[in-house]
Amino acid sequence: MMKYAYFPGCSANTTGKSFTVSTAYVAEKIGVELVEIPDWNCCGTSAAALTSPELAVALPARSLAIADRELPGLDVVAPCAGCYRSLKTSLAFARESEENRELIKKIINAPYEAKADVLTLLDVLATDEARETIAAKVQRKLRCLKVACYYGCAMVRPADVCECDNVEDPMEMDDLMELIGAEPVDWAFKTECCGAAQQMTIPVQAKPMIERIFQNAVANGADCIVTSCPLCMLNLDMREAEINRARVANGLEPFDIPCYYFTELIGLAFGADPDEVGIDIHFHPAKTLLLQRELDALELEEAENIARAEEARKKAEMAAKIAAKKAEKAAKEKAAKEAAAQAAAQPEEGKEAAE
Amino acid sequence: MSRIGVFLCYCGSNIAGTVDVEAVAEMARSLPEVVYVETNKYTCSDPGQEGVKNAIIEKGIDRVVVGACSPRMHEPTWRKLLADTPVNPYMLEVANLREQCSWVHKDREVATAKAIDLVKMAVAKVARLQPLHSIEIPVHKKALVIGGGIAGMQTALDIADAGFQVTIVERETSLGGKMVMLDKTFPTMDCSACICTPKMSEVGNHPNITVKSYSEVENVSGYIGNFEVTIREKAKFIDYNLCTGCGACETKCPAKVTNAFEQGMSQRTAIYKMFPQAVPAKPVIDAEHCLKLTTGKCGVCSKVCPTGAINYEDEDKLTTETYGAVVFATGYKLIDWKPLYPEYGGGKYEDVITGLQFERLVNASGPTEGHVLRPSDRTEPKSVVIIKCVGSRDPNKGKAYCSRACCMYSAKHAHQYLDKVPDGKCYVFYMDVRTPGKGYDEFYMNTLHDGAQYIRGRVSKIYKEGDKLICKGEDTLTSSQVTVSADMVVLETAMVPADGIDELAAKFTVGRDADSWLVEAHAKLRPVETNTAGIYLAGTCQGPKDIPDSVCQAGAAASKVIGLLNKDALQSNPQISRVNETLCQGDGACVNICPYGAISIVEKQFRENSRKVVRPVAQVNPGLCQGCGACTVTCRAGAMDLLGYTNESIMREVDALCQW
Amino acid sequence: MTAQDTIRARARELLESGEVASFVGWEAGRFANQTTPLIISDPADADKLVFNEYCVNTLAKYVRDLVPRGKVGLVVRGCDSRGIVRLIVDQVIKREDVYLIGVGCPGVIDRKSGEPLKKCTECRHNNPVICDEMAGDEVAKDAPADRFAEVREVELMAQPERSRYFESIYAKCIRCYACRDVCPCCTCRECFVDARRENWVGKQNNVAENRFYGLTRVMHIGDRCIECGECERVCPMDLPLMKLNRKVIQDLNDLFGEFESSMSLDEGPEPLITYDLADREEFM
Amino acid sequence: MILNKKNLTPLLESMAAGRDVFVPARVDGVAKFALFGEGVECAFDLVNTTMPPKDLLFPQTQKMYHFDVDANGNYRIREYDESREQVVFGIRPCDMRSIVCLDEVFLTKGFVDEFYANAREKLLTVCIGCASAAETCFCESMGVDPQAAPNADIMLQDCGEVYRVLAQTPKGEAEVANWAAFVEEGDAEPVACELSLAVDMDGVVDKLEGLYDHPIWENLSIKCLNCGTCTYVCPTCHCFDISQDMRRKDGVRFRCWDSCMFSEYTMMAGGHNPRPEKLERVRNRFMHKLNFFERRYGMSLCVGCGRCVEKCPVALDITRLIDDIGACDVVPVAQAE
Amino acid sequence: MSVVETNEAAAQVPENWEPKIIAFCCHWCTYTGADLAGLNRMNYPANVRVLRIPCSGRMNPQYVIEALNKGCDGVLVCGCHPGDCHYVTGNYFARRRMMIFKRLLEYEGLEPDRFQVRWISGAEAGKFRDTVMSVVEQVRALGPLNLTREIPYFELPAVPDGEEAFDAVPEEVVPEEVSA
Fold this sequence. Notes:
B: alpha/beta, FAD/NAD(P)-binding domain, 5-stranded parallel beta sheet
């Protein structure tokens, strides 16, 4: 039974609504219990560090302290990458030395042992137990859907805090996609920055960062981009229209790349209807591609069935010919043996006759 | 009773100016065991020295104190002077009355009092000194050069030309090292093989040089003049006396092995010559990949060999010889950039290659016969990006130092590329261009004129889009972002020491710095010597450098070796440690404190209280001991003492100073 | 089977089988609860061996004179075993020269006062660190309060007071060298005090010469001291010698990292005969 | 004549007027004879001091001569004489008996050691008998009466509350003469002092001569540490070494205690050592205590004070040796002609 | 054994008292630095006498005790900067030994400034001069070393009036015959 303390984060019921809905759906389906941390507070990703370093460390620590106290023994899951990084940095700071923990305790004036670990949703779903249940629960493989897995920066950097295996080329989400039948594409912008807040402050310079991501995805044959961070989703999905407008103005082909949360696709694979997993509230139209690919999948299946049937027929034919040949050979041998036996028997008859 | 002579010098007015030398002389006469005191205007002058010599002989003096300038200045002079008298040159103590007394104190009375103290200390010390004699250390007139690259070969040639026997130990199957892999050499662009292979054949045929290819140093003992080195000649499975080098076997061998010489861009057979002009020009069987040796099947080469030179039962051969001097010329290798730079693809993209790979591409005997074809699809790259300082000057991911030669050979690469692909575009991302040699900057200017586009900035990311390699970087001069889509990228990676240098250097107790480069005795004044006497350095093993510098160092190292081997014997430094065996308990505390490994524990037989006893005692190797005295302090019983600075003499010096 | 019986039985067996040439233990002394070291080579004497909470002496150093006669059997508690390790690491004897019968030590009682000895209250390793076999199982013992309490107490004194304190110590010393002769670290063939040529220490008994001897001895054994406390116990003038030894041990631990000397045969070199490039720099 | 114990302190104060009076006291935790004065409280309750009183007659380090070279270059030697009028008050009978031994060594047989002689003349010995004994005392076995000291100037026999004063020498009588204020007439019976430890000494001296190679020395010496404790706390040990402390042109020649237990004691030039091993050294010490001295001076050099038994780090016990010698069955060798 | 009385005579500072400091300098670096100070005609107080040893690794703590016992008021030990040692590792060992020894001496009541160790390279003439000047000032401030030591205070024996010296050889003494 997989049970975790759940830190939703501010985007859960706002911009990241579909992420939360699909996460709930998937979690319920594979039996992962996410117990929300009571009275959790903002993780401070956006502005805390600007005001004071102590605040940036203490804000997330308060929620972690509540988790330690209320939900002892449970690790904390923070699906949103921004929350994950803040919590993880605070945890690393607390575990670094005794004085650091004392400082935090003084600020949040509550006991805090920094026992619970902080995980991303990917870590949770990447465990063997979760993978088995996912594989078992898959009803419809999302075949011929080419996905470009986009991890963003917050989940992987800084490497020593986020304990990421390969900062440039992580594979956790790719493996999950393979599990549900999709085809992850090998591309180079998995952890490239999406411009995050800069999209608001210096949009002109930041726009190309997103455009490049789409360009590389398309260049490597991806149909869509799968991500696990509400902010990345926001930047990619919401700003695709603007970028397309700009491209059309410059006479370039507009992109048609929908973006999904990986939990949405897993939900689909479990047979969920797109609306159930929050695919209805995307900026860029996301359903048409799914239907298209569903159709392709069916056609592919059909073609495969035909091919398989053809193969079976051919095999049967050849088997029959072999059997016929074998029977013929056996018959010939029997005949030869009888002839030989008769020849041996004659001299005896001759001999008997002679006595 | 010893007869001490004290000779005080005026040094013109340098000492007499603030020290009342006569008063000091007067005091000295009253010191016990002092029989003769003489003052002199210039003791170091010839007449002065004559005066001292006569006084010594006349008065039968057996110990001498000279109160004059610093011992660092004229101690050798006084020692030579004593050599002509019956007095042993080490029965001498110098009181520094000039640099540390007259020159640094103004008050005449205070300076004289200090001078008196210094002379008293000197007299007290000289009274306890013993005559010391240096011993002769035989010098074996043979040199060992480790490494057969250009540095090793040049050193060996110079030593051999001076008439001494030289052995070159080369780990690879042929001489040549990295230089023979190159195509052209800057700044003159003359073909590397054309200037390297003649050297190789000269070495191969030189009567005084024995080349031990495919061999490594197994272990070492001994000291300067007498290095006992055991060399392991790995099994070649080919009898070099019979083999004519015809190459028939190489053509028939079915095995396919990635060719390290071609930087992994082509295949070679199990029985192979590293490259056509290899010296020795005979193949070697690679035991790991030869089907016969691994699975027992095949054996084609022995069938086709006209002279029957193949012998599958060949074994490693260990030979031990004594050498007078050892020269390290172990060279360098390129840093393994793949794990360090995932942002450049981390080795995923086949067309992101290193400088040496590029050298093989443009080399006529390389995998592409000199045509610049990119490894992935063997098409001619129309645009190439060269990135400098990959791994160099990068303390976070690579090495902090600058690898010195890459600025020049990256310009060479650009020039070669533009030369071979006239319509090609070449971009060079750089931080700085360092061209510190004769004709170097002109060479760089030519490359600029050829049309190479130098962009000042680092490449932050390389990714593949379609069949293009997109290089994202910045141009700090225009402070703008730059994206270049290239067909091929050449990384000029950092130089690091060759593999296995730590173990090899440890065997010779040669120091290494934090990056494992061998440590020279003195960065400026003794760049080719090491702290271990008799061991010298040449080439990139001492640090990144280009071919001209390597050859320079090779010549320097050779001259040092020749200087050493010219002597039939060496005078050992007599001021070394000496063991008092009755006190020594053989606990070995001194052994691991000696920086030169000069002390060993040996079992010896003694007669103690009319009983024969065998027990371990320490033994000092006069050739290795440099006389630092660290062992005398760790020896609690005081069994180890340093001649020239014995515990007793220092104690009496302290006593002499303290009792007014 | 008490530990004492096991020791007696094993001693007899070892001597009879000839596996050891001599066996070192304790025997009862003349007075009540008094023990004295006993070295036997005849199996019959094995029954004289005793082991109780009055075995005051540390036996390690006797092995040095017995090894020429052949293998030596020895009863070892915590301090004895560390003494043996010290002798082996200092190459005075070899490991195969001794056969060690380990025994857990409950702490030795002073036969007069009935109180545990000072060295036993401060003991941190009462079970043998090496032994060939155990006679009786290990004895749990809670670690002493504060290993460097005495040292800190002296460090807190003002400088003139500390100077007078140590001058009074060196005034009492009668230079009988019992502390040197009992210490397993002091195994030089000829001690520096007898080096007449260097004349480090004069033969007269005054504060200056006693200070020279005291300071030098601490510097010689400081990084190898096994803290057995024997030097303090045997000193006829009851000088607090461990205050000096523990001061050096405390500084070594603070400056160069924890080093417990003589705990195993393959421990690294002692702190003062090795170095670390990252050592603290305070002389620049 | 009797002296009430209460009057002890006033008596001491009066005696200390012109002279140094040494009393048994605990100084910095060490029981020894210290100069009576303020800050030193007497410890007559001590059975005996750790450091013997021999230090007053034969100090651990005694300056003998000062020598230098005078203006015209010849040697000039000046002798130190640090002897002063001293009183040792509270010395025990066994230590008084040890002074007899020291007198024999330093004053008889043809050479008078004037340093010792000066000190000895100026010493007034006031011996106090023992009412009780420590567990290590065995003076009776060595022929010492715990309540009597024939060679003491004044003998105070402990009679419980009072001392019985016996002036035994002219000097003693002169001294007692001016004790008038503190003593009363009358007599008292000295308390008998029983000793728990006794050894049988008869025949031991002769037997020792036959035991030269007997294994008892081996068993005894093997556990000795060869430190100098026993020799330095022993009241009768009198071996010394002479050395000098040089300065450039002058120096002091001094005498200092030495111990036959140190290997360096018998180290000869060239490295030969007649007593190289512990066995020879331990045997030599006990032979000197129990045999050599007897043969030369007719008295045992061990007074049974028990200090060495008390202070030996390895509890090497002379009394057990004597018992073992008694138990040996070796026939004594004929008397040397 | 007389009760310990620290040398009262040493406690009062004689009026023209000058601190006597011995400096053990390593031949390759500090001694060269000192010579360089001379070449540059720098000036520093003359209270320091330099004793040349091959390397700071040669510095035996027993020399320091000897110096303090025999009359020095301060001891300075100098060597090459760690890493520059001519004998490669000499000063690494010295650094550890001197750190421990300095703490031990201070523990025994020696004022910290009386025993100092400094790494001075062959080029740091200025640093040598400054070190000498600061050590001399610090020791002068501390006054004479207040440590019990008999050596400098040979109380000369009182010469009996009129008699200059006596014959070293005592008069003939006839040994009594040995008593039975």
